[in-house]
Amino acid sequence: MSFPSNKVECDCLNWCGDDPWLQDSRAELCQHAQERQARETQRREYTERLHVLIDQLGATVQAGRLAVLEPSLVAELQRLVQTLVKR
User: Fold this and answer.
1) What 3 state SS string does 10-68 have?
2) Of 16, 17, 26, 50, which is most buried, counting CB atoms within 10 Å of its CB?
3) Structure-model confidence comparison of residues 85 and 35, the more confident one
C-alpha cells in the first residue's frame, strides 16, 4: 500500500528547476522537469558512448592498423550522432 506524498509539485519561478523547495526536498520535480532531466541524462550517456567509440577508432588508426568499421558500429555511430543533433 502506498501513501500519498506530502510533497508538493515544484513551482519554478524563473526557469524549470529553480524552486528553492527542491533543494531541501519539500517539493518534487514536476513532470516537465523529470522529462528534461531524463533527456539530459540520455544525452550525456549518448555523448559518452560516442566518445568511447571515437577513441577506439582513433587508437586503431594511431596504431597504424587499418580501421575497418563493422556495419553495426557504423549504424550505432549514425544513431548516436543523429540523436544528439536532434536535441
Assistant:
1) CCCCCCCCCCHHHCCCCEECCHHHHHHHHHHHHHHHHHHHHHHHHHHHHHHHHCCCCCC
2) 50
3) 35
Direct distance between the N- and C-terminal alpha carbons of the chain, in angstroms, rounded to an integer:
39
Of residues 34, 75, 56, the one with CA closest to residue 83: 75
**9, β-bridge pairs:** 28
For residue range 59-82, list pLDDT tens digits in order: 777 777 766 677 887 788 888 888
- Give residue limits of the domains in the chain: 8-86
- State the cell numbers at 38: 531524463
The residue with cell 553495426 is 72
- The single residue listed with the C-alpha cell 519554478 is 12
Residue 64 falls in which region: left (phi positive, over 0), alpha (psi -120 to 50) or beta: left
- Residue 11's φ and ψ, nearest 5 degrees, are -125, 80
Answer yes or no: is pLDDT of 52 > 50: yes
